[in-house]
DNA sequence: TATGAATGAGTGTTCATTCAT
DNA sequence: CATGAATGAACACTCATTCAT
């Protein structure tokens, strides 16, 4: 784990203090516990509603102890943001193998949308937390640094799309970046919909069809085959 | 600092009505001023960063006076939410006539996307505030009640799409609701993208093409005609 | 009373807030009460031992109310420092008329030393507080700005000494500034002595004799006349 | 950063002694290191600004380890105070031989003032720390016990002055105690002056002249001889 | 309408100190 | 000897809200 230290006002004394702080197995566990709890609370009450007291209380430690692990609320937030960045493209729907290089890009995208639907059903808070952190980051540079969800996300989609273009399963004139961003925008907006979670599945399917019909080399074929499933 | 506005202009009729309810014209101005200022501050600092003190100070009144107009911070928030709901579908790009029944549904949607791009360029805070309020609403029922953006929004898109289906310019088997929601999801996610605002235009164009190619009765024609412009 | 506002990190919003704060008679009384109480507590526990809680409690108000009058602990400290600066040369021993232009400079200095002895006996905390604030100021520029004791003090002594030189009661080659600073140094060091307060009188007398014997035009005459009193 | 030192150098004999008491040479070094560091930090941030954490960090040990050597912050403070007491009269200006019984008392006093000026120039923090500790001591009896600067100081001056009176170089009716205290008061007040350190030299010279003109058996002679130098 | 004054309930953070290992 | 972990008790400061005037 990269040491998150992008704070600015730290004196040399402060630095020296922290540098000496060793890492134990127990300590890292606590760290994780705190991050997880903060994550859960952000999902519940939002970043603005997050209280260090609550995090500490839920973990069962003193507030001061929390500050032993995270000198500042923001450091905690950064840790949450950082972990979220990694978590976002690494947990595909079970049974599918999104991310595996074994499949064709088309199948990968298919799996990706399936995974998206799955995650929206099982861990919708992940999207909530991401958006919460994103908003917080837009007002705090230091948080923005730690929150690289989009970077990872876009890179992931880019690689699939490019591969698809190369292999001929996607249109050769496909603008990879724009497509990736369009998908991300859609994904980010999805959990912001004030509609029942049940309808999300359908909307994803609908969007998926749009995607395939627009990117597929042979538009007609894919579109028609999709329509049957819908 | 550009003055962002979501006011709609109180007619004289309205003034008279309010006056009979014990509300003076001056009082309503103050009310509006406060709402506007709150709106601006939410755009800047987020709902969580909104301070009644700041709102009052910017308007030039005492904090206590603010509470005369809005007994609670939440009442103020509700007022902002309410106005936002109306404002969202009523300010098309200048020169276009989105919303006018005079045009064909296809042209209306075309205008809609143009308006979207225009608004994202000129008043991006509106989307920020909307999302901010949405998050706040997800934790506060009373706010949720006041924030009916989605309702208005979806109704607006539904009406266009349905008319389009009726007139034959959109596919007859088009699932109007799903399509509307897909568009809304995309729109909501757009301002959450961590990319340069310049690229938003392109992404919108890209999405617009998807939309038309999927909904148009004659796919081939529209798609090809689009591609030329792009 | 000059408005003490030499803070740096205040946003425009903050400024606007404070600017609107009017001054009432009642408010100014409270202000004074708080300053006095802070002064007393500094005398007791030192600047480092000053707690806003204690100040508020002694005055009988909520801690938050204290912050209504003084946005920061330091603003309170500044107010104390400022008042101390004025108070230091304006309260002569009763019965004497130090500061009056009616007397000769020699008599004024005589009265000054008498006043010094008197003040050390009656309000020794004043010196303690002054030194406390001085130390605090040496680590805080903003405090230093408000604490102009030395400036006032030196100006006061300078004027007397200069007048004395002009009138011929003090040596014509007297270095006024050095003499003033020597006296101030002595005065500042006095309350730092770990000896019984009773002996302070004698030491002051001793120092006074030094002063007069060194500054008097006719050394022999004054010295001998002094010795009789001692 | 210039290394300020108030250590005195532990002899081997001392080491052996301590070792028998359960104190190792290494332990004593650490002890000294901690005291020195505390001393330096007091000079920088004042007694109130001293943090055990900082002391430990600068020495390179854990805070808990510091408490092994000094069970309480106050014990550490006491140790600093104690060492300061000794250090205050034992480091004369190099080249002079203040403290040596070989010279006449007048020369000793001359050397003393020279040393004072020298110390104020080279190690002004010593005076700062002394005053800091003095203030702290005035609120803490235990510290006061350890801080016997004045006792040592006065004893030192007394011995010189008494010897001078005996030898006839100082006035026979000189009140030794009062004179010593006057000098100490002046010395203590000196570093509290808000003036440029350059002017301190002149003020000391000025005061020295006062001293000699008042104490010398033949006033006229010394005074005139002084004036030439000034 | 408007305000100065006042407040309760937090809010993140600090710090000397303790203790098992 | 040394340390990582933990904590109680503060601490300055914030903020929405209330109320007499």
From TrEMBL, chains A, B, C, D:
SUPFAM superfamilies: Homeodomain-like, Tetracyclin repressor-like, C-terminal domain
Region (Disordered): 1-30
Pfam families: TetR_C_13, TetR_N
Composition skew (Polar residues), residue ranges: 1-10
Domain HTH tetR-type, chain residue ranges per copy: 28-88
Signal sequence bounds: none
InterPro entries (UniProt xref): Homeodomain-like_sf, HTH-type_TetR-like_transc_reg, HTH_TetR, Tet_transcr_reg_TetR-rel_C_sf, TetR_C
DNA-binding region: 51-70
Keyword annotations: DNA-binding, Repressor, Transcription, Transcription regulation
The name this protein goes by in its record: HTH tetR-type domain-containing protein
Gene source species: Dictyobacter halimunensis
């Amino acid at each position: 784990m990269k040491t998150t230290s992008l704070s600015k006002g730290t004196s040399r004394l402060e630095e020296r203090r922290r540098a000496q702080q060793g890492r134990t197995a127990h300590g890292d566990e606590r760290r994780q516990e705190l991050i997880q709890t903060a994550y859960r609370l952000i999902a519940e009450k939002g970043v603005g509603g997050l209280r260090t007291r609550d995090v500490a209380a839920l973990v069962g430690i003193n507030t001061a102890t929390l500050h032993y692990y995270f000198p500042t609320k923001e450091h905690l937030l950064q840790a949450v943001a950082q972990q979220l960045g990694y978590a976002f493209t690494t947990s595909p729907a079970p049974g599918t193998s999104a991310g595996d290089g074994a499949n064709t890009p088309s199948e990968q995208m298919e799996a990706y949308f399936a995974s998206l639907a799955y995650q929206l059903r099982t861990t919708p808070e992940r999207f909530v937390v991401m958006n919460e952190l994103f908003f917080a980051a837009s007002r705090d540079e230091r948080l923005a640094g730690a929150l690289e969800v989009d970077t990872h996300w876009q890179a992931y989609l880019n690689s699939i799309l490019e591969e698809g273009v190369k292999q001929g399963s996607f249109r050769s004139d496909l603008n990879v970046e724009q497509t990736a961003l369009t998908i991300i925008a859609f994904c980010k907006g999805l959990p912001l919909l004030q509609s029942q979670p049940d309808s999300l599945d359908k909307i994803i399917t609908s969007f998926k069809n749009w995607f395939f019909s627009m990117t597929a080399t042979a538009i007609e074929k894919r579109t028609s085959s999709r329509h049957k499933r819908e």
